[in-house]
Amino acid sequence: MILGADDLSLPKATVQKITTEILQSSPGVAFAKDARDLLIDCCVEFIKLISSEANEIAENEAKKTIATEHIDKALRELGFPEYVQEVLASAGEHKEALKVGISPPEVLLVLDADSLQGHEKRKNKGNPGGLTDEELAAQQAELFARATEKYNQGTAA
User: Between these two residues, 121 and 145, which has the higher pLDDT value?
Assistant: First the structure.
């Protein structure tokens, strides 16, 4: 099944949670739903831009898989070198999480124990380490805290 341009998106709840956490440092500031939707559209376009460039780089190197170094080169070639360090750090964190049996995207989906009801297959697939719901929620909270801290460090510079 080929996805059309309208089928590509990011989870609204996840984007809302990220923006809410970022805005905690600015009391009284809200993020409107139409602004969230615009942000999602911009993120999707950015991802498409970077992945297309990385794909071209991989193809030029006769590679069939886009690797971290292709993303690194794509960011630099497209004029986003300031993102490379953060992307490489996130890639390293992702590799570390996989080593202990946690898939970071699955961890981000675990908002609370109630959200797991009816999703046992997905939970087990993304939780091969057999962690409890509480442990997964704690790891999610840690990931969000680190992301918020990194964002706050980036805006202070």
Answer: 145
